[in-house]
């Protein structure tokens, strides 16, 4: 390849750091300017040019992510997340209820279904309120659940120290749901978007954030991590293809990390099985990246907004 | 209103003389700043993208020269008003500084 061809290819690789929308508008003219100002015979960008292009890309990406033009995307993301959040409260609660009932049944203890169905019932009510568009009532109900969870945690902490901290998922889930619903615009819009085009990744997310059931059935929490984290990454990879989906993932990350983050850390530190989280993490990163890159076709908008 | 950063001020000043393409803006900014400011492509196009989004500059036309795209940018009315306001602010500040320096040098430097 000629020197100019090499130089152009290397410049294009650096310009690849910019968002797709920006590149569509400016890539060719940027390249023209870079080639016009490069000395004859040069085959690669100078360090200063490379730094300028990468820093420019960071500036443009930050402005697109948080600038005034990103406000509609954030609004849609809050609506979408607020519609997803009740699912992430309900599904793990159902998983826990079924798992605990299974343990009680196996051990011959009398079933206390009413006790264990209280949280799933509360989660179902939250989902119905949210998806029928009763935003304020849903937000108030989510706050009630969050406060109840906080009081329950405080009681456990008083009785048994901070032993129960890794099981704080219901508190994180209900508090995140309450916050999202408080600031959401129209929950019906979020629910419609969820049903229309983004149901798959969120459904996967909802099912995956309920390890208690699988843990009880298989008694293999670590294997669940290996299977669940890559699936979670793939679901996230689908979600990141839209600007609102990417932002919704950020808003929902406390709910997911409260489960998988704490569990992975406890598996690493307490159980002494560093291989499992390492394998799960590597698989997740690979699959998530593959899904994201697959969505960067000409018609995709993986890096817009 | 937030003061303009120097590269932004110089880009708008370059475009105040008429539509320019990227290379033209870079060359004009070097001239305006007496060789002190040399805009690099990453800085220039990040600024142009922001100024376009803010409605201060707009794409004027495109040309193909030697098979390569050249897009011209022009100052909008909003951009001209913003540049005028910034130039006025800098001018007032500069005048205040000069006036005080004259007063300072008067008694100190005498009439020599």
Automatic annotation (TrEMBL), chain A:
Q: Which residues cross the membrane?
A: 77-101, 113-131, 138-157, 169-187, 199-215, 221-241, 248-269, 275-293
Species classification:
Bacteria, Bacillati, Actinomycetota, Actinomycetes, Streptosporangiales
The record lists the organism as Microbispora corallina
Q: Which UniProt keywords apply?
A: Membrane, Transmembrane, Transmembrane helix
Q: What is this protein called?
A: Integral membrane protein
From TrEMBL, chain B:
Which InterPro entries does the entry link to?
Metal_resp_DNA-bind_regulator, Tscrpt_reg_PadR_N, WH-like_DNA-bd_sf, WH_DNA-bd_sf
Q: What is the lineage of its organism?
A: Bacteria, Bacillati, Actinomycetota, Actinomycetes, Streptosporangiales
Q: Which domain of life is it from?
A: Bacteria
Which residue numbers delimit the Transcription regulator PadR N-terminal domain? Answer: 11-84
PANTHER family recorded: PADR-FAMILY TRANSCRIPTIONAL REGULATOR (PTHR33169)
Quote the Pfam families the UniProt record gives: PadR
In Swiss-Prot or TrEMBL terms, this protein is called PadR family transcriptional regulator
């Amino acid at each position: 390849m000629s020197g100019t061809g090499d130089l152009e290819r290397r410049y294009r690789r650096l310009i690849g750091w910019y968002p797709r929308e920006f590149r569509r508008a400016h890539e060719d003219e940027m390249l023209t300017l870079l080639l016009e100002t490069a000395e004859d015979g040069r085959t690669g960008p100078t360090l200063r040019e490379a730094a300028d292009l990468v820093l420019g890309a960071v500036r443009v990406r930050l402005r697109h992510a948080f600038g005034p033009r990103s406000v509609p995307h954030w609004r849609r993301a809050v609506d979408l997340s607020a519609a997803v959040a009740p699912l992430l409260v309900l599904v793990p609660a159902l998983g826990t209820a079924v798992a605990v009932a299974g343990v009680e049944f196996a051990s011959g203890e009398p079933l206390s279904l009413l006790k264990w169905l209280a949280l799933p019932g509360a989660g179902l009510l939250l989902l119905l309120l949210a998806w029928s568009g009763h935003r304020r009532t849903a937000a108030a109900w989510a706050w009630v659940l969050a406060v109840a969870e906080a009081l329950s945690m405080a009681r456990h902490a008083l009785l048994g120290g901070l032993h129960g901290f890794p099981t704080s998922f219901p508190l994180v889930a209900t508090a995140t749901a309450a916050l999202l619903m408080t600031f959401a615009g129209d929950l019906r819009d979020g629910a419609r978007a969820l049903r229309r085009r983004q149901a798959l990744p969120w459904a996967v997310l909802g099912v995956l954030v309920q390890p208690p059931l699988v843990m009880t059935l298989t008694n293999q929490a670590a294997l669940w991590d290996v299977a669940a984290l890559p699936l979670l990454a793939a679901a996230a990879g689908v979600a990141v293809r839209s600007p609102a989906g990417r932002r919704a993932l950020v808003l929902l990350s406390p709910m997911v990390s409260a489960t998988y983050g704490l569990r992975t850390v406890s598996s690493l530190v307490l159980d002494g099985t560093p291989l499992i989280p390492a394998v799960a993490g590597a698989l997740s990163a690979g699959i998530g990246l593959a899904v994201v890159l697959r969505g960067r076709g000409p018609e995709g908008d993986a890096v817009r907004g | 209103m937030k003061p303009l950063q120097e590269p932004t001020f110089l880009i708008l000043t370059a475009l105040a003389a008429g539509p320019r393409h990227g290379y033209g803006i870079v060359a004009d900014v070097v001239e305006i700043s007496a060789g002190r400011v040399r805009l690099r492509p990453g800085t220039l196009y990040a600024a142009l993208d922001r100024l376009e989004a803010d409605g201060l500059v707009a794409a004027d036309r495109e040309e193909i020269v030697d098979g390569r795209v050249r897009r011209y940018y022009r100052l909008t009315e909003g951009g001209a008003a913003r540049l005028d306001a910034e130039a006025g602010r800098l001018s007032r500040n500069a005048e205040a500084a000069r006036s005080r320096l004259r007063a300072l040098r008067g008694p100190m430097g005498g009439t020599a």
